[in-house]
Specification:
Oligomer: single chain
Number of helices: 12
Helix content: 40-55%
Order of helices and strands: HHHHEEHEEEEEEHEEHEHHHHH
Strand order of the largest sheet: 6-7-5-8-4-3-10-1-11
Radius of gyration: 32 Å
Strand content: 15-25%
Structural class: alpha+beta
Distance between the termini: 20 Å
């Protein structure tokens, strides 16, 4: 309990008998505390407890803030997984995407019947359709021979399904089956000539993808991440060559652009009805808006992949660590001031009042630690993103989730500490 500044003289008589020097010293401290409490009725007892020992309180806040920062870090990396996994959907030049019902992820989309292209383009709601092939292949580092998994995307050179800055002038280069473009954000492990980043000096270099000889005809920039550390673009013919597929009448995804007067939801509903009426292989295709497809992709990476599960486990561990720190802080405070709490009970303060005070103290610790941790997370995200090349963002979604988790964490610690408070009995003062 804090030693407060007395604003006006006011005395209080201790109704409990004093016995011995220790009891006299304890009652003297209690008298000073209660005089201060009565003189500052407008200030919460929980606030006084935090102000009583500012150094210890500051260390406690830093400990809780560290646990909150760990939550932010885990969620930040998880968010970067979702952001990089949806890069393809963010670059699609259309309103809808048609894909297989066996679709797993953006780089394992399975295939649908290519005849759906002709069927879709005949619909009055559709302006144009563009095919897109996606898969993962084995890249051969041209410098050290290391083999790495790389995302490959096959475009129709005349009607590219992706919008990428600076891509149009490079598309004619892809008419040769053995030519491809390399994403400049691919990791240095893929073998750029300068050892850092793919650029103009890599143009003309030959290597192999899935043991097929290829030539780097240029570079582009779309972005990679934990979902794919490197990416290349090629024509649809080049994709079939690298993926080991002949012209089998299959396509990974179909990007659909609707007429200006048709909304994405209305177009989706109409196309689903028409494809279901056609029957046959076209019935095994899903039609989604780009937002729906991106949301499902995020959900897949957040909840169904080992990477997402690991980050969620990290968040849970951070909550446990923060809860233990908060519990230790509150429990130490209660044990130190058991005589004062017992005196308050003797004066008529209820267990409910003291319990609410303790819970308020826990909430105050969370409220102070949160902005500290949020500011630290913003700084750490900035430098980590610059160093790793991952798009780690501090979003309002993560701030809201961490706020809820922090309040629950500290509230649970305060609830557990109530058992310590129950040991404060007036009888112990005698």
């Amino acid at each position: 309990m804090s030693k407060l500044r007395i604003g006006r003289k006011e005395s209080i008589r201790n109704p409990l008998p004093e016995t011995g020097p220790a009891s006299a010293q304890r009652n003297s401290y209690s008298n000073r505390f209660f005089r201060s409490l009565l003189a500052n009725r407008r200030t919460s007892l929980a606030v006084h407890n935090l102000r009583h020992q500012p150094t210890r309180t500051g260390i406690s806040i830093l400990g809780i803030a560290f646990a909150v920062l760990l939550m932010f870090m885990q969620l930040g990396f998880l968010g970067s997984v979702g952001d990089t996994a949806t890069l393809v959907y963010q670059r699609m030049s259309g309103d809808l995407v048609v894909r297989s019902r066996e679709y797993l992820s953006v780089y394992d989309p399975r295939t649908i019947d290519e005849r759906v292209l002709n069927r879709l383009v005949s619909l009055p709601e559709v302006t144009e359709v563009r095919p897109l092939d996606l898969s993962v292949a084995l890249w051969h580092n041209p410098i050290n021979g290391q083999q790495l998994a790389v995302a490959i995307m096959g475009l129709d050179v005349d009607q590219p399904a992706l919008r990428i800055d600076g891509l149009d002038p490079l598309l004619p280069l892809l008419r040769r089956r053995d030519h491809l473009l390399v994403d400049r954000t691919s990791r240095s492990d893929f073998g750029p000539q300068d050892g850092i980043r793919f650029g103009d000096e890599d143009i003309g270099i030959t290597t192999t993808v899935n043991y097929q000889s290829v030539r780097i005809a240029g570079t582009f920039e779309m972005g990679t991440g934990l979902a794919a550390n490197g990416a290349v673009l090629t024509s649809r013919d080049g994709f079939r060559r690298l993926a080991g597929r002949s012209h089998d009448g299959q396509v990974s995804l179909v990007v659909v652009r609707l007429a200006d007067s048709v909304s994405a939801i209305d177009g989706q509903r109409s196309i689903v009805e028409r494809l279901s009426q056609d029957g046959g292989s076209l019935m095994f295709a899903d039609v989604l808006t780009l937002d729906q497809a991106a949301m499902l992709e995020r959900r897949h990476w957040y909840l169904e992949t080992p990477v997402g599960i690991i980050f969620w486990v990290g968040v849970a561990l951070a909550v446990v660590v923060g809860g233990v720190i908060c519990y230790m802080v509150l429990a130490a405070d209660v044990i130190t001031h058991l005589p004062e709490y017992a005196t308050l009970k003797a004066l008529g303060y209820s267990n409910g009042y003291l319990g609410r005070t303790l819970l308020l103290q826990a909430v105050l610790l969370a409220a102070i630690a949160l902005p500290v941790a949020t500011g630290a997370a913003w700084i750490v995200f900035h430098f980590t993103s610059a160093a790793s090349g991952l798009p780690i963002r501090l979003t309002w979604q993560w701030i809201g989730l961490v706020t809820i988790l922090t309040l629950v964490m500290c509230g649970a610690a305060g609830t557990l500490t109530l058992r310590k408070l129950a040991k404060a009995e007036p009888a112990s003062l005698f």
